[in-house]
Amino acid sequence: MRALRFVSTLSLVTATALPAFAGGGYFSGTKGARAAGRGGAFTAKADDLSAVAFNPAGLAHIGTTLIQVGNRFSYNSHSYTRAPTLDWGGAQDSGGIPRYVEFDEVDNGEPWQLLDPLLGITTNFGLKDWQFALAAYAPAGVSKEEYPVEGGQRYMMVSREAQILNYSLSAAWKLRELFGVGASLQWIAVPKLKYSLIIDGDPFDGAGGNGVSSDYDIHATTEGKDFFTFNAVIGGWYRPAPFLELGLSAQVVPADITTSSTLSVQPLDPDTVRGGITLRRGTEEANDVDVSFPLPMTFRAGARYRHLDGEKELFDVELDLTYETWSRVDQFSLDSRGLVAYVQENPVNVGNIMIDKQWQDTLTVALGGDFNVVPERFTARAGVYFETAVADDAYANIDFAGGNFTGFALGGSAFFDKFEIALAYEFRGMSTVSVSEGDARVYVEAPGSLCTEPYTDPDACNAAYLGQPGPVVNAGTYDAYSHMASLDVLYRF
Amino acid sequence: MVFSARFRQPAALGWLLPVFALACGSELEPKRPSNVKAALAPELATVMQVTWHTDEPTIGYVEYGPTAAMEWSSPMEDTPATEHSVTLLGLHADTAYSFRVVTWDGDDAGASEIASFRSGALPSGLPAFTATGGDFDDFVAVPLRGDPAAVVVLDPSGAIVWYHLDESGLDVLRARISDDGRSVLYNRTDVSADSTEDSAIVRVALDGSGETPLPVPFLAHDFLELDDGAFAALVVDERDGVRGDAIVEVTPGGDLTTVWSTWDAFDPADEPGDGENGAWTYANSLAQSGSDGAYYVGLQNFSSVLKIPAGGGDPEWVLGSTAATLDFADGATPFTRQSGIVRFGASDLFVLDNDGEASRLVQYSLDVDGEQQAIELRSYVATPSVQVGDIGGLVRLDSGAVVISWGDAGRIEAVDKAFAPLWGLRADGEARLGYHDVAGSLYPTGSQVRTPAAPETDEESP
User: What does pTM read for this prediction?
Assistant: First the structure.
């Protein structure tokens, strides 16, 4: 009955964030207070509900029934200062001379994230050497970012919001204390995925768009949902000696999340685009689009040294490597399925809007451990990690912080009979990313532009941008850091 | 590779970062031009030369202005280079300016820090001008007749933004902005009874790099720059003590060819004109229009305007009081002792009529193939009225506006195509002006300066 009640509770959970338990790309930091306190070095240890994502085989360590409820609170700073540029697109309005334009720094206007839950139960149902788990959690991530609609970042992104919830059903089995295996089946639900940016909708601008400002700047917003994407995690551990434990896990399903969304387009200056913009498919008004973004596969390996006093573990130190295939993320794509935008009765094919990402695989190195300060009363833990950049600087973007990250964490657990209260503080900072206009490769989205590949037609393309789709809009300096505090309550019986 | 740790964090966490934040990072360094210098051009207090260096070949320009907004800019350089020099024009005298250099290497923009300079003081003796009205954005190049003889360029506020003193002792009657936009041209001459062989068309570089006289003996009031770099000029053609006029074409090398002479078309015995002391035809205005190469000549003592075919020959038509082949239509008032003329389009002729006490701008429509008459369309008299004397110039702008130099009255005025007043300048003292020219920019053809707003300056009138 308790299990059934717990399942019904899970169905009520709503959450905000983006998928997985630790890492870069869409993700940010580590989920679960005990894992977070070790800086994410948890693949081999994996002895609480966080194991459903870190390493399902680790559930077999638990050997009892455990209910775990937690939340992560975070402050996520992300700032960007666009590099100065020359306004070649507006030069005709200033005597043929492109203005030198400088931009103010912009900051994430929604830095506080108060709801980032983890909720689950694990039990062995009385079966020796088996363990089963049901969990729901919002993957560790920055759910919401918002920037000024007039800011220097606006051609990359104005805002995004993701509400994603992973439901996980796991099973693990072990052979004595020698080795174990496990698997999690995951159902990823996306109740809300919203993304907005400014596009240059000037149907008369054949020059590849204007990267500074256009009379036809249009605020394009897509919002949608997707209630089922399947994923899976498998894992194992092996204890060749009592003091040494090795862990391996992998999220091996190459999944994409594709949301059924709507597209809205609002001119920034309604006086310029009198009558607004109408979206049609054929002769019918329509605004339905598909938005898709890939998920990476993840491979984890961990080695843990256990310092034993008899059979009791006094402290441990774990070194983890995590490899994530972010190179699957070439682009975020919006398929309009033939929508045509009518701007003052001039048709502009919306086509497929591709936000180029060209991400690369990442490697995370994490080192952490627990120290039983007062056995069975208080445990302290700490960890550090380094994460390679998910995005080449050329594709740096304000939507997801893409540079090298370094982090550290401190945490501890206090035990009160069957309860454990776990707390963790984690800091995660990105090395400053700077990209010049010459190196940058994210261009203004200008669906109506007549400048098409290979972008060398001087009659259709701005002479200053020949050979490229238009002006780059992502040059500049990026900084990002997060402060994260996790609180989990564990009840074992 | 330099490994560094750099995060932007709250200060309270700063002590932790060196421990945990080992990573590659770098700040985006702007591609700033270096060694930026500004210096006054030789002998010009209102022209600055800005020089700078870039490590890589770039093109660039200079933003400048009397306020921090720096609303003006020089043209973009054409050719990438590492050593740069740009001339800043349109400056008011004795005024502080902010400026910065902007560069572009094909990918990245750069800019120097904002710096400042102060322009110099004007030479003594130049008049001050007071502007009225504001619907005018162009520059006016105009001679100052008398002592000192000079050519000045005035901005819409009436400030002298460029000047050249002619120390030859001769008069200066006509100023033009050269077709290449790099120079001011003027005639150095004497149109009194003692016309001079020492007259010349003078080219003065706007950047102050010097003057180049092209000798043209016996120059009269007016000249034109032709498409091929040559000039056409009115010269005095004196025979037996009677001073007629001729049109000569002068190559850049100084070779002269007489295209047409009043002696070819008229006989002083038959058409004596109303001149005195041997001044017969007194040609005082020369114009061209369209591509047929024909000249339009105003003969003041004949009170007539003629069309001379390209290459010379008999006039195609004559409008006026002497030897006329065209009539004035009913209701049209004939002009008398006119000065400036402008021919525009297929039929329009603008004349500065000096009949009576008040000079007037009058626009005729010519029907040379049909009724052979001139219909008066409209006219304009300044308020208060003025009599311009020998020289009063007209320039028709693309907008249809006409800019008038009311010569002896020391006034310049712009009227719209319906002859409604737009803007005016009035010189203090007894300044007398010559034939003028108008330019939308002081920078070379093909480049434009951003339309400047009238600057707010701390300049005091000299």
Answer: 0.82
